Amino acid sequence: MGRLTRAELQARNRARVLAAARDEFAERGFRDAKVDAIADRAGLTRGAVYSNFPGKRALYFSVLAGLAEREAGPDGALRASTASEETPDPGTADASDAGTSGVATAREALAAFARAWVSRLPLATDGPGRLGMDLMPEVLADQRVRQPFAQLMKLNAIVLGLALERLDGPASGRRRVRVAETALTTLHGASQMADAAPGFAEPFDIVTACAALADLDLGDRWDPPHLPFVPRARPADEPWSPPLAVDAVRGEPVPLTRDGVVAVLGLHRLEAVEEAVRATPPGGEVTAVLVTGDPGELGPLARLTLADLRACLRQAVPAPSWPRLRVVHDDEGAVAAAAGVTAVSDGTEAAVLVRSGRVVARADGYGACHAAASAEP
Questions:
Q1: Considering the entire predicted model, what is its pTM?
Q2: Which of 4, 108, 115, 174 could form a disulfide with 8 if both were Cys (CB 3.0 to 4.6 A apart)?
Q3: Is the preceding omega at residue 74 within 30 degrees of 0, hence cis?
Q4: Domains of the chain
């Protein structure tokens, strides 16, 4: 066997660190886990661990993200041979579990989503099943993590809410994002109680409560922005040659060359994706490209959060009702650069409108998503 390249060696060492970290966190918990012990388990130096991960929390988020993505399925690895123009439309592709075939209403979908969620809750606080019990304390420990996490929750609620709206049908005219927010709040609370007081909550009651949310009138509405400082999209005529990417909502490679809005959003601005979705004409596609100023730590947190949603959504909503929204993790900034956004941060908001393989309009700053989506090319 020939010598490994530098990239191959780094990938192998990273995998060894992740496997060792998973064992260390499972046995000792996040707080008591030691980086030196992880290095010893991996047969590497402490420096080798830090050359792959900026800190213990980043390593913890990466372990949880990897586990969540494997559980959520399908394989999210980028396969260039399948990411072609022949990729099925995301609104009709087979992106859901066979168990969703009987789901026809928002109430049924919320019940199925909740069943999928509570089925993953552990019955005890011991053992590998509690690997993630330190996640929320780590989110709470640092404002730099709390704000992105809050926006990731907003994004999850938007995706779930849009799926519920498609089940309702266009004639209903109902916005379901607040119902989705309430369901996610209920389910995250159930997760916290499973950690703090195992056996306290009856899973059937949680499922019933989430299903009942579909019948509540929460006065939910969405109004387009009318603020005077919302920018107007600027006409453009530029080539659009994005790299291959993976849709984090479906876990599948997708081309980004089809017509639609591409929104580059930092982790503090994720809720702006709804402005693009609502302003895009019927049948239009929206791609949210997630960027961050801290890809080492916040990148894995974003992957974890979206994979958790996907794991339950696949079992709750049939493929035709998935929203016409794609989400791409862009830790390296390659898709953002293709869109002309070369400097990114957690506050980034920029959007381009793509038509026939060219960027025909662009906008930057607060309100950019709505401006690009409503632009007349």
A1: 0.90
A2: 4
A3: yes
A4: 6-72 (1.10.10.60), 82-377 (3.40.30.10)
3-state helix, strand, coil in the chain (%, to 5): 50, 10, 40
CA 162 – CA 180 distance, rounded (Å): 9
The predicted-structure confidence for 48-100, as pLDDT tens digits, reads as follows 999 999 999 999 999 999 999 998 876 433 333 333 333 334 333 344 443 56
Question: What crossing angle do the helices spanning 298-313 and 143-168 adopt, rounded to 10°?
Answer: 20
What's the longest Cα–Cα distance across the chain?
65
Beta bridge partners of 353: 261, 361
Cβ proximity of 229 and 236 under 8 Å: no
Q: Which two tokens stand for residue 176?
A: 């379901």
3-state secondary structure of 74: coil
Confidence band for 283, pLDDT divided at 50, 70 and 90: confident
Cβ(366)–Cβ(326) under 8 Å? no
Helix boundaries (H) for the chain: 6-32, 35-42, 46-52, 56-72, 106-118, 135-140, 143-168, 177-196, 203-212, 273-279, 298-313, 334-338, 368-373
pLDDT tens column, 116-165: 999 988 764 444 457 888 999 999 999 999 999 999 999 999 999 999 99
Q: What is the mean pLDDT of residues 166-189?
A: 94
- Nearest residue to 294 (alpha-carbon basis) of 142, 109, 182, 113: 142
Q: How confident is the model at residue 260 (pLDDT cuts 50, 70, 90)?
A: very high
SS3 label, residue 95:
coil
Q: Is 39 helix (H, G, I), strand (E, B) or coil?
A: helix
Q: For residue 320, name the pLDDT band (cuts at 50, 70, 90).
A: confident
